[in-house]
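Each field is set out as follows.
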Amino acid sequence: MGDVALADAKVAIVGGGPAGMSMARLLKDQGVSSVTVFEAEDRIGGKSMTVHHGGLTHDMGTCYSTLAYQITNRWMRDLGVRQVSVGRQMVDGEPLMAYVRGGKGESLYSEGLRYIRLWHRYRRAVQLTPDDPDVIVEGAMPIEDWLERHRFVRIRRFMLRALTSIGYGYLDDIAACQALRWCTPALILTGVLHQLKMPIEGWQVFWEKVARDIDVRIGAPVKAIDRTARGVTITDPLGEHHFTHLVTTIPLDDMASVTELTEAERYIQQAVRWRTYAVTLCHVENWFKNFEIDGFTDAWERSAEPGAVLSARRARSFGGRNVSTDIYLTGQYGDGQSAPELLDRLAAGIARKGGRLKSAILQKRWKYFPRYEPAAVRDRLLSRMNAIQGANRTFYSGATFSYEAVANIVDFNDRLSRQIVPQLRG
């Protein structure tokens, strides 16, 4: 990487979402003084998007934190960001844990113990012997097949809620290596102990507080990236800017529009397939009032109609304010569907569940969850992703390299930053 003193290192980070902002914070905390974040939008936060309507705060992307969010939970405490419970979670109108415990077979406790053992065994194998053929085959199989192989009934129900209902795809289309990254023992414990929380001020406000002493250039879409043996040049609307190293957190197909990808980068670009996930903030009459979140199992299987409503969260007020309680956030898969089509299906789905869509306040369609192609996983995709870190003075983060969830992204960045800093020192 070159003999560059840490004090002289200048790091550019492309993308001001959770990956970019957490990497900037981690590098600054480890003594890297010159870190610049380029964000194309006029705000930071990426999929942590907070809007205000009707006197309430609404998160259109990142919503929750779990017991796995150790780093961001610590940052929130340090910054004075208060978190509160999300409230009562239901599935088809019944308590979440009653749904998870349903079905025939072992108890949830027994399945949970077996799952924890298998999860630790697999994660250890990925760390120690990632290219072992058995480890590769296990990681490439759909999580549905993995669950069936190990006779998990209740853990499957948990994953339907923890994966499918929040935009990560159907169980027969998610590689086990990805599902097991997110569905950690800590996530399961969060559900059992009812520890799902959310920041009152919203996730975007949290990232803005994280960024207060960081050089962030919003409204600065990168026009070109030139990487040479001497350094990295980034061109934005204000001109050229020179750095010693680059951290890119944007999808590689977006990266391809501003620089020539290497062969290794092109391979990874072609190995992922992005979903479309739509979140709609809407005014609904005569819908659920006695709890905060409901999930709808008729949308969680492959047979579901396109655009079916996956889940809904009722807006809440904090601090005793007297505000409307008929504002909801809903989620739908949006692959191949227009915004009007999704709204039509949203209205029909809400009607079938007893409510009436009065108005759609805001719809946000996210490029979401890069699903790994099974053939690429079998072709050592995970090892290839690790191998390119640091090549061409470039490091890679974001959902493609870790997972869509903020906890995974920040934990990944924590490990990656500890690799980057020694290379910056030379």
